[in-house]
Design a protein that fits this description.
Elements (H helix, E strand, L loop, with lengths): L9 H25 L3 E3 L23 E3 L5 E7 L5 E5 L17 E9 L7 E3 L4 E4 H9 L4 E3 L10 E5 L1 E3 L4 E6 L3 E6 L5 E5 L5 E2 L6 E2 L4 E4 L15 H7 L5 H10 L8 H9 L6 H13 L3 H10 L5 H11 L5 H12 L5 H14 L5 H6 L6 H15 L3 H10 L5 H11 L4 H5 L5 H12 L3 H4 L4 H6 L1 H14 L10
Parallel strand pairs: 3-5
Antiparallel strand pairs: 1-2, 2-3, 4-9, 5-6, 5-7, 8-9, 10-16, 11-12, 11-15, 12-13, 14-16
Helix pairs in contact: 3-4, 4-6, 5-6, 6-7, 6-8, 8-10, 9-10, 10-12, 12-14, 13-14, 14-16, 16-19
Length: about 475
């Protein structure tokens, strides 16, 4: 019997994560351009990192918080037809579209388009449109929405709620607004486009207005392209929220307070990490705020979490350390990566976190990880080293000839991805046959056009490596390279 799980395939899930991250990053930038002071509230919403073995059940909160006005924004990226819609569970309230959202929050809609062949190759549109959660709920309560049932397991068995709207498919100028239709003249073809409109939908544009592709022209809710930052949220506001009955508000407050310098902040955060019954993720955010201001109590709490009985708490502590740019956090992560008693995915998470810190002190630990038994650790160490290579290429090149043969593959891969070295840098690393093999690999993975003339120097210095590089270029630039049977 076929196992009808509701889980999406790894590639499908990665694509979904990448689309969401592209949308959230665009909304974050848009809020910044408007004068807000956004922070990522839901950890992981701005990247597409997937942890397969350890699933962290985080506090459900909107993606972004403006710490200056305390408004929260949930980003929703759309990859196909643009619409006002949300995924929604008809059976589990915790998977409802508005779970964890307040009436004062906004939902931000942004279209995304594919820009490459990989699951992560998605780009968000410039246009961001904001809708009040309160208004969306009101329309839903009046049963003026459409519920679309899921088609099957590949949809995750979730329904979608659609709010009625009239949406432009392309840029144009509004020419007609009637109860039953809206017309606009396309900018590229000068052709008039007629869109049907329900009489009750309120127009959101005016005649003569220039509109963008995917712009919402009429709806049951108000749609804006921004909102004013009141600059009214203070440290005292967030300190008060630390006592809220709402878990999401306490979590957001603990995270926001990291960005305030008031003398009242640290005592409030210290009290929070001392509360026995508080949620562990609220306490971790409070500890992170203390650590950022170099309070030993914050570092001590995070250090204890790295030994927590629950693996998800350990992993969250590692990820948080990767956000604190400090030599102390770097050393704590190195200790986790080097600890063979730690779970493999915790160590892999530590390797990933070192890549986020961009601290060259991590070089020895990451390179040593290339002899780890677990492949996941080696993979994350190589990815982290590639991030560091973009900043410290000469130092990493120096490490290459000095390393043993079992460590060179990871270094070579990281260097090949950095594209920051010169041919002269590599010529000095040709110390033995193994090094020569991997230098050929590094150069073979570069853009042939950029090295065609430079590589003549290698031809005279080491003809065999020159031959290997040219063969790699011939194979990798041929149309049959990576050709699949399907």
């Amino acid at each position: 019997m076929v196992n009808r799980r509701s889980f999406k395939t790894d590639e499908s899930f990665l694509e979904k994560m990448a689309i969401g991250a592209a949308g959230t990053n665009r909304v974050f930038a848009d809020l910044t351009e408007q004068g807000h002071h956004p922070i990522e509230l839901e950890r992981g919403s701005m990247n597409f990192k997937i942890w397969k073995q350890i699933k962290i059940k985080r506090v459900r909160v909107p993606d972004i918080l403006c710490i200056a006005c305390a408004r929260r924004v949930e980003s929703r990226a759309k990859k196909t037809s643009f619409e006002i819609s949300m995924s929604h569970s008809l059976a589990d309230p915790e998977r409802g579209w508005d779970y964890g959202l307040d009436d004062n929050d906004f939902v931000a809609l942004v279209a995304c388009k594919r820009v490459g062949e990989r699951p992560i190759d998605w780009q968000a549109d410039q246009l961001v449109q904001y809708i009040s959660v309160k208004e969306l709920r009101a329309v839903q309560a009046n049963e003026e929405v459409k519920i679309v049932k899921p088609k099957g397991a590949e949809e995750g068995f979730e329904a979608r709620i659609k709010w009625p709207a009239v949406i432009a498919k392309s840029p144009g100028i509004i020419s007609t607004i009637k109860d039953n239709r809206i017309q606009y003249r396309r900018l590229d073809t000068n052709r008039t486009i007629t869109l049907q409109k329900r009489p009750r939908l309120k127009p959101l544009v005016t005649i003569g207005e220039t509109v963008s592709a995917n712009q919402i022209l009429a709806a049951d809710v108000d749609v804006t392209q921004g909102f004013i930052c009141s600059q009214s949220a203070s440290a005292a506001h967030y300190i008060a929220l630390l006592s809220s009955l709402s878990l999401s508000e306490r979590y957001g407050a603990a995270k926001a307070l990291s960005f305030f310098e008031s003398s009242d902040v640290s005592p409030a955060l210290l009290r929070k990490i001392g509360e026995k019954d508080e949620n562990i993720y609220v306490k971790l955010e409070a500890a992170a705020g203390l650590a950022r201001h170099n309070y030993k109590e914050g570092w001590a709490f995070i250090r204890e979490c790295l030994k927590d009985h629950y693996l998800e708490n350990r992993l969250e502590a590692v990820i948080i350390l990767g956000e604190i740019v400090d030599d102390v956090s770097c050393q704590l992560i190195i200790d986790v990566l080097s600890d063979k008693e730690q779970h493999a995915e915790i160590r892999a998470g530590a390797a990933w976190a070192l890549g986020e810190l961009h601290n060259k002190a991590a070089f020895p630990a990451l390179i040593q990880s290339f002899v780890a038994i677990e492949k996941s650790i080696r993979i994350e160490a190589a990815r982290a080293l590639a991030k560091l290579a973009a900043y410290y290429t000469p130092e990493l090149v120096q490490q290459f000839p000095e390393s043993t043969e079992d460590k060179r593959p990871g270094i070579a891969w990281a260097l090949s991805k950095s594209h920051q070295f010169t041919l002269d840098d590599l010529l000095g690393t040709l110390v033995d046959d193994d090094a020569r093999h991997w230098v050929a690999y590094i150069l073979g993975n570069q853009d042939q056009r950029a090295y065609t003339h430079k590589i003549e120097q290698l031809k005279h210095r080491d003809p065999e490596v020159y031959f290997a590089v040219t063969v790699l270029w011939k194979i990798m630039n041929n149309w049959v390279y990576n050709l699949e049977m399907y």
